[in-house]
Amino acid sequence: MFIYDRDIRLSGMDLWLDAKRKKPFSFVSHAHADHSARHERILATPATLALARERRRIRRAKMKRPSRREPVEVPLDYNAPMRLDGATVTLLPAGHILGSAQILVERGGRRLLYSGDFCHEATSAAEDIEIPTADTLIMECTYGLPEHRFPPRESTVEKLLAFVDEAFADGLTPVLLCYALGKGQEVLRILTQQGYSAAVESETYALARTYESFGIAFGGYRLLDGGVKPGEVVITPNMRAVAAFTRGRPMRSAALTGWAIGGFSHRARSAHSAIPLSDHADFDGLIDYAAAVKPEIIYILHGPEEFGRHLREAGFRVGELSEKASPQPGDK
Ligand SMILES: [Zn+2]
Predict the structure, then answer these.
(1) How remote is the CA of residue 249 from the centroid of ligand 1, in Å?
(2) Are 129 and 288 in contact (CB under 8 A)?
(3) Which of 107, 125, 202, 317 has the most CB atoms at less than 10 Å from its CB?
(4) How does pLDDT run across 189-237, given as a tens digit for each residue?
């Protein structure tokens, strides 16, 4: 049902899936840059289109570039089947970041599901995942090794809140290092719902405003554009982005990433500590997802090839893509 040529195209259709090279028409599962390129037309949820638009605006402003031609947007809501090239395509929430979607393609009685990045657990700022059944499954497997098992999410959130409280108790400003899209808004929501106030780096802030335009409410937060005030938590993708406002202030930092468990992360290495809050499924979550889809065959992407062996051991049939999947870790 699909053709693999370093990117995936649906057979007999003019639609690519998360193509990383420029295409006439691609589905974009979510607004992280490693799932897109400068396509002519983009099929995505309204939230993904808005977040991607905002990120292009921010990038242009940073690079001081004039605006280029914007892609043609083809918005599609969740669970709203659309006819396309003789098939029916439906987007379903993937639970990864706001707007993230799986795509289900049905044609001639066959069903193909492409997962995009997904999280099997409910998070604070993304839609909860809905998992359909399918005959063919193409899935991400970022945390596809058995050592990638995360602790229960509630205990990770408790660890995050304890980190913040202890920093304040020691007279330090807590600085949380989070990717600007997805993790930053999730952490902002967790903290502000608990009554903390946050000073937020500019890109994370702009994207939080986009989240708000889709009904995700945050409590007290502001753009970090001056000194940090007492009692504020700083949320930023890196220290460099806020250096001008935090210099000379006693701080303690924590990186929020799944790579805090059994892995490696620049973000984790540069911080005082690391907390394993992830917006991806862990190893068990990946296996559970495959079991819920009940596919005849699975193809894997965005993770360790070894995950294929674990799927086979769990009783699944795993197909080979003609080229090797990228082993690059994809967690934000
Ligand atoms: Zn992603």
Answers:
(1) 32
(2) no
(3) 125
(4) 999 999 999 999 999 999 999 999 999 999 999 999 988 999 999 999 9
pLDDT at 137: 98
Residue 89 shares a structural domain with residue 20:
yes
Distance 201 CA to ligand 1 centre (A): 20
Residue 114 CA to ligand 1 center (angstroms) comes to 14
Instruction: Give the CA distances from residue 5 to residues 10, 11, 145, 303, in Å, rounded to whole numbers and listed in that order.
Output: 11, 12, 26, 18
Say if pTM beats, i.e. exceeds, 0.70.
Answer: yes
Q: CB neighbours (10 Å) of residue 243?
A: 10
Domain count, the chain: 2
Query: The domain spanning residue 75 has which CATH number?
Result: 3.60.15.10
In which band, very low, low, confident or very high, does the pLDDT at 316 lie, cut at 50, 70 and 90? very high
- Indicate the helix (H) or strand (E) that contains 110: strand 110-114
On the CB side of 214, CA atoms within 13 Å amount to 19
